[in-house]
Write a structure and sequence with these properties.
Rossmann fold, about 475 residues, alpha/beta, globular, nine-stranded mixed beta sheet, 19 helices
Length: about 475
């Protein structure tokens, strides 16, 4: 195998800036790929947090007119990450979310902000950064969707392109009048270019022009080619099905390791699961739950949205809390859901505890202290919380969709008998199916020995990036051999 250079293009990256699973993937994959002889440099926007984290930076290139202002391309490191950073204050020097203004609305110039990200990536692919010429550019989600079409407009050799869909619900559609401002000629505004229902479709453009298309689980790769799952892009994906594949996400098993996790009250492994009870007590105390080790504690770590199925948890709450069971919830999002869970915590004191917002330490404690983790998503490209749950001995209860279907082995009678079960699946995504799943879990939880086998199975599963990294490396090399 010859060494490869890959430019990863992302709008967020853990541990510097994170709103969701994309950041975790972008932050963990480079080190895993290094073992496959793949060198990755990641291009990210120069948000304040990124510039603050950047060490040993040097200017690679200066842009005098760059989407409404001047900008510099910087090279440097942040921890273990090799980065290119676009220092463009007029685009990225803003507080809070990478995508949303303080009023919760999209930044009005998001089209320019992320076209700038894609344009810079294409320039690097065409030789802008001496000493690093990528063999492959790996573009993540709609924010990097214009990379392949910018490259298609250039003459001469170009790197291969891989477009990864982390969630097809987010597509990046903008008014057609921005076409020339984004540096796209009129000839690109066609059904075979960027045109998408009369708008400029960033993700659509990437899917149309990338050499390979991936998503984050095999089942989701099939779902997005259906009318119900493709959200308007299913036809294009079916046409290009020959280059579409699903590669399961992993998690960083150094960050998510119950044996060394400093966020936990008590570290443990699969041979010392009895000591895990200290984390359950700490979680109950943190969220104002009754400190009782002998009740079943359900956890939720999630964005609060209809996609995530949290309305099912509310609808089934009375039955969920039967026999004194508890719910520990960490998340934020839809205001109606937040208010409803807050009301539930008042109506069920000592049984429902909520924290609304983002707290990395509490996320680890929920995984390390809950008995079971609820993931009732209506669709889920991959999901990471169920992988963390398995690693931490919290039994996942998941809907049979996307990556949840691919990663959790249902504790049906045969799977229990053969000793392979790792959690509970349910389908369809309905209240009755969800209720049946958590009631099955409640029944099995009373069988200490059977529950412990599920914990051991989950904690023994390889949920790291090792296998996905091998698959990505093979995919990159296949791009160059065709």
């Amino acid at each position: 195998m010859r060494p490869l250079n890959v430019l990863s293009v992302t709008s967020e990256i853990f541990p510097i800036i994170k709103t969701g699973g994309l950041a975790d993937v972008a932050g963990a994959l480079p080190s895993a790929l290094a073992l496959e002889d793949v060198t990755v440099i990641t291009l990210v926007p120069g948000y304040p947090a990124v510039l603050k984290a950047l060490e040993g930076s040097r200017v690679v290139h200066h842009y005098s007119g760059f989407f409404g202002g001047t900008a510099s391309l910087l090279s440097g490191r942040a921890g273990d990450l090799d980065l290119f950073v676009i220092d463009a204050p007029h685009l990225y020097d803003r507080p809070g979310s990478p995508y949303l203004a303080p009023d919760g609305q999209d930044w009005p110039d998001n089209a320019r902000r992320f076209a700038a990200l894609a344009r810079t990536a294409a320039d690097i692919g065409l030789g802008l950064a001496p000493g690093f010429v990528p063999d492959v550019i790996h573009a993540h989600d709609w924010q990097a969707g214009l990379v392949p079409i910018y490259l298609s407009l250039a003459e001469g050799p170009r790197p291969a392109t891989v477009m990864t869909i982390h969630n097809i619900a987010f597509q990046g559609a903008f008014p057609a009048y921005l076409l020339f401002e984004l540096g796209l000629p009129a000839s690109t505004f066609t059904i075979d270019g960027v045109e998408y229902y009369g708008q400029i479709g960033f993700l659509k453009a990437g899917l149309q022009h990338a050499d390979r298309i991936t998503t984050v689980s095999p089942t989701y790769a099939k779902e997005i080619q259906t009318l119900g799952g493709g959200m308007g892009l299913d036809g294009l994906l079916r046409v290009r099905s020959g280059v579409v594949s699903g590669i399961l996400n992993g998690i960083d098993d150094k960050v998510w390791d119950p044996e060394t996790d400093t966020y936990l009250e008590q570290t443990y492994n699969r041979d010392t699961l009895n000591t895990r009870i200290a984390n359950k007590t700490a979680l109950q105390r943190r969220l104002g739950l009754s400190q009782n080790p002998d009740v079943l504690l359900f956890g939720v770590v999630s964005r609060l949205s209809e996609q995530k199925g949290l309305d099912l948890v509310l609808a089934g709450l009375t039955r969920l809390l039967a026999d004194g069971a508890q719910l520990a919830l960490l998340g934020s999002g839809d205001r109606i859901l937040e208010d409803s869970f807050q009301a539930a915590s008042i109506a069920h004191p000592g049984q429902v505890g909520c924290f609304f917002g983002y707290d990395e330490g509490l996320a680890h404690l929920v995984q390390g202290g809950s008995d079971a983790l609820l993931v009732p998503s209506r669709f889920e490209p991959c999901g990471l919380t169920q992988l963390c749950a398995m690693r931490y001995g919290s039994i996942p209860i998941v809907s049979r969709v996307g990556g949840l279907a691919d990663t959790v082995i249902d504790a049906n009678e045969m799977a229990i008998a053969t000793g392979v079960a790792t959690g509970f699946q349910f389908a369809p995504v309905s209240l009755s199916s969800f209720t049946d799943a958590f009631q099955r879990a409640t029944k099995l939880w009373r069988d200490t020995e059977a529950w412990r086998r599920l914990q051991h199975n989950g904690m023994s599963a390889d949920v790291s990036w090792r296998r996905p990294a091998k698959q990505y490396a093979a995919l990159y090399r296949s791009c160059l051999s065709t």
